[in-house]
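Anyone up for a design puzzle?
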């Protein structure tokens, strides 16, 4: 019997279009002899539909009733389509933050990837940093700002001045570098902060880490598979949304990273510690910095990393001998 896998994609987040591309890649590499994919699209406005082909959208949603264990859809009446598991391919808010994972848990439907707790922890950059720091891993110096705090007093400026420049201003719960600014001087700080506040009620200001970014893909459950380490080389600027998904003029990804095997091993070990500290499962991409002194500094965890043609995650797994189809198969197998 084929497993009926609901691939949920799209979503009412700023990363909707990236999610659509990631879901397309998943569908192209899913073994049709083992799985029956059910493509569940969420519009930017939050409407759910069973996507059965171009122009064929059937109103549908996951039933929270544990007895249903499936997708309720409306086509000449109300029907229930039983599901084996759910594979969320939703980036950012309302999908990568634990909301959909919580719905699956309520419905009693196994979900592939990180669960409710780890999803919520990892998307909140400040909380994730505090937990990883408590585990003995270095994180960037930072200041957490709340919108009402910035509106009411100017004491926050003194805290940021102590950090020194340059800094990165980030919405606390956004992904794909959306709403992030690199700020070199005090005069540009407020503009960057208020733009970040347009995406979130909380903003973190992080001291820029000297060195370069490295990443590590992790796949699996109790004995996770660890991918090769990659390196982000910047020729100017930083790895913003355009550089990640549209065109790479200032950045080049080296896979594997141009580092020694010993340093790569330390990065992989640190990535796994972070993965476990934040209670991740299924799959995740752990992003870190490597300083000129070869210290490792935590940046963030993507609990549903991008799977587009430009994405780093599948390339890192490929570097460890794990193909895309194998990754999809393995990931579905971790559903719980």
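Challenge accepted. My sequence:
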């Amino acid at each position: 019997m084929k497993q009926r896998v609901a691939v949920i994609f799209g979503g009412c987040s700023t990363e909707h279009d990236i999610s659509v591309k990631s879901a397309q890649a998943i569908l192209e590499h899913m073994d049709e002899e083992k799985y029956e994919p059910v493509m569940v699209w969420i519009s930017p406005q939050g409407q759910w539909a069973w996507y059965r082909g171009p122009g064929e959208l059937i109103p549908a949603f996951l039933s929270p009733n544990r007895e249903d264990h499936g997708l309720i859809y409306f086509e000449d009446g109300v029907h229930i389509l039983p599901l084996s598991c759910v594979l969320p391919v939703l980036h950012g808010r309302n999908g990568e933050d634990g909301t959909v994972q919580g719905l699956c848990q309520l419905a009693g439907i196994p979900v592939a990837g990180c669960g409710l707790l780890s999803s919520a922890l990892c998307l909140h950059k400040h909380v994730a940093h505090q937990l990883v720091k408590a585990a003995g891993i270095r994180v960037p110096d930072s200041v957490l700002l709340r919108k009402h705090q910035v509106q009411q007093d100017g004491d926050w400026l003194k805290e940021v001045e102590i950090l020194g420049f340059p800094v990165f201003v980030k919405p606390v719960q956004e992904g794909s570098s959306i709403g992030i600014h690199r700020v070199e001087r005090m005069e540009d700080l407020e503009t960057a902060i208020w733009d970040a506040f347009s995406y979130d009620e909380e903003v973190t200001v992080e001291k820029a880490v000297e060195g370069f970014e490295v990443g590590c893909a992790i796949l699996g459950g109790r004995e996770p598979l660890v991918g090769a380490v990659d390196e982000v080389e910047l020729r100017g600027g930083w790895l913003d949304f355009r550089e990640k998904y549209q065109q790479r003029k200032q950045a080049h990804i080296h896979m594997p990273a141009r580092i020694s095997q010993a340093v790569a091993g330390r990065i992989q070990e640190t990535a796994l510690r972070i993965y476990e500290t934040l209670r991740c499962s299924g799959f995740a991409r752990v992003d870190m910095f490597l300083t000129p002194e070869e210290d490792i500094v935590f940046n963030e965890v993507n609990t549903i990393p991008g799977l587009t043609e430009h994405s780093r995650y599948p390339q890192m797994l490929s570097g460890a001998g794990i193909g895309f189809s194998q990754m999809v198969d393995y990931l579905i197998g971790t559903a719980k």
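A detail worth pointing out: The chain has a mean pLDDT of 92.
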